[in-house]
Every structure is written in C-alpha cells, then in structure tokens.
Amino acid sequence: MQFRIVDPPEVPLKPVAPNRPLLLSGVTLAGLLLGIGIAAAMSHVHTTFITVGNLKNITSLPVLGSVSAILNDQQRAQERLRLGRSPSPFSS
C-alpha cells in the first residue's frame, strides 16, 4: 500500500464559515420583517366589528344579538379617567 500526499495541508487565508455578524444581522432583520408581515396579515384576517350596525352593513345579514363587555368597578373608573370624566358620586 502506498500513500501519496496530493496537496499538503495549509491554513486558509479566508475563514471557511460565513461572516457571523453579517449573518446574525440578516437573520434578525428577516425575523423582524417576517413578524411584522405575519402581524399585518393576521390583523386583516381576524376582523372584529365594533358595532352591530357595522357587522350588518358588511355582511348584509340580520344580526340576532351581540356580546358586550362587562366591566368591573376598577375598569369603569379607569375608563372614566381615560375619557376625562369625574367618577360618579353614586358609585360605591
């Protein structure tokens, strides 16, 4: 058996692996753009209707009922503050 060395081993002048900072920057940018794209697509797919009239106008179907939000006392107080109204003197 004979062994011949065709090319002697040598240290490469350029790194064999990809440029890590450039790769990480590209992956981060791609992830952010993909996340924004998915969020925008989901906002178009999952449509919500604020009023019953809006739902009726868009679907042209009769609306039999709706579900309204039930707020506790703390949430009502926060909503009044957000709207710039003073708390009701009759609330306990």
From TrEMBL:
Top-rank taxon: Bacteria
Stored InterPro entries: Bact_polysacc_biosynth/exp
Membrane-crossing residue ranges in chain numbering: 22-42
Gene Ontology molecular-function annotations: protein tyrosine kinase activity
Gene Ontology CC annotation, any one: plasma membrane
Keywords attached to this entry: Membrane, Transmembrane, Transmembrane helix
Name under which the protein is recorded: Tyrosine kinase G-rich domain-containing protein
Organism encoding this protein: Hankyongella ginsenosidimutans
Native organism taxonomy: Bacteria, Pseudomonadati, Pseudomonadota, Alphaproteobacteria, Sphingomonadales
